[in-house]
Amino acid sequence: MSRLLTLTVTLLRDWTRNREAVFFALLFPLILLVIFSVVFAGGPTEFAVGVQNNDVDATGEPTALSATLVTALEDTDPLDVHRIDAETVLADTDNVEEATGYKRVLVIPDGFDERVRTESARVRMAVIQDTVALFEDELSESQREDVAAAQDAFEASRPEGSTAGPVRVTLHTVPDDEGAGAVGSILDSVVATFNDRSIGVEEPTVAVSADERGQRDFAAADYFLPSFVVAMILINGVMTVPSAIAGFKRDGTLKRLAATPLRKHEWIVANVIQQSILAVAITMILIAVAWVVFGVSAVPGPLSIALIVLGAIAFTALGMTLGGVVQNPDAAISFGSAIALPLMFVSGIFWELDLMPPSLQTIAEFSPVTHFHRSLRKLMILDSTSGVGWTFAALGVLAVVFLAAAVHLTSWREFD
């Protein structure tokens, strides 16, 4: 036991002297936590939209209905509406952003007010005609004549040359505008409400009410804190440990240790204990930073600590296994990176799985890293244990398998 304790302390001291190890295990996840939490902090999303109203009266003032539509757009929260002077010519422009400074420009055409009024009257008349048709058999001859006279009067009141159909407002966008689809959907909703009001529908037939049930949405730091704790454990275990083991082989440290009473399993266990201590300590540092900078109130309980330690054991054992077969430290880092980096990217460390293609989402479900950071988030952030048992079992199996492989592959007495 004294040998194990002494070796663990020595390994910890050696780790603190390794600048690369300290950077990748502590500073790298810390930097990522701050950057990603700031960049993806969220808040209300706004889309800048230019609006050009070409429907003005003789005095240059917007007509009543075109002004009403512009006001409705300005009152829509996701839209940041900027008015564009009607004198700006957009008909022949090849690049709307160069001409106006905005990636999205909605153009209200000249004659909008008159066309809307005409079309609204036509729609109302169509509704009346449909209603009359339903009760036509119950109408007297004089009533039918009155209805026909009203229809003739409506047709006579329509401006010459007017055609039936919706008034077209045009949304100009640039080809690389990723928000164009969202803006188009928002505009459809605003225009639909405007259409209802224009034909006298004040209350819609169907309305959507929102009711929040279930877990709250994650803040960016809530999501990334457990993710980068797992990333730190993965980097430490799969990249740093194999490199250190290969370095000990190259400089003869492992050979000298093999000549002492120290046993192979003690060497492996000491490395596992070292990484477990580092995992818990660095987790506390990350939590402290997240608490001070982003207000995350995550408090790791016994299950969280146990999961962190079990993850550290599993991935350190994997690192010890890699260290047992790789001789060169640089090659060990490359080998470890080839395993750790794809695991991090495909497992939702840097972004939510919903943002990934369906094929990668399926692959991610088979990754232990996915379930590791998902379960850690449930324990630390959501105070839930749902599905956590499976993660404990999976990491436990990996720990046993890789520890057995590390014992088998680590050379010890074969140095002479």
Protein architecture, described:
This protein has 416 residues and is mostly helical. The chain contains 15 helices and four strands. The longest helix is centred in the middle third of the chain and has 31 residues, at 220-250. The radius of gyration is 34 Å and the shape is elongated. 32% of the residues are buried.
Specify the overall morphology: elongated
Strand arrangement across the biggest beta sheet = 2-1-3-4
Round the mean pLDDT to the nearest integer and report it. 81
Number of beta-strand segments: 4
- Distance from N terminus to C terminus (CA atoms, Å) equals 27 Å
Oligomeric state of the chains present here: single chain
What is the helix/strand order?
HHEHEHEHHEHHHHHHHHH
Topology:
Elements: H1 2-17, H2 19-39, E1 47-53, H3 64-74, E2 79-84, H4 96-100, E3 104-108, H5 112-134, H6 141-157, E4 170-173, H7 180-198, H8 220-250, H9 253-258, H10 264-294, H11 302-325, H12 329-346, H13 358-364, H14 368-380, H15 388-409
Parallel strand pairs: 1-2, 1-3
Antiparallel strand pairs: 3-4
Helix pairs in contact: 1-10, 2-8, 2-10, 8-10, 8-11, 8-12, 8-14, 10-11, 11-14, 11-15, 14-15
Features:
416 residues; mainly alpha; 4 strands; 63% helix
Short description:
The chain is mainly alpha-helical and 416 residues long. It has helices spanning 2-17, 19-39, 64-74, 96-100, 112-134, 141-157, 180-198, 220-250, 253-258, 264-294, 302-325, 329-346, 358-364, 368-380, 388-409; strands at residues 47-53, 79-84, 104-108, 170-173.
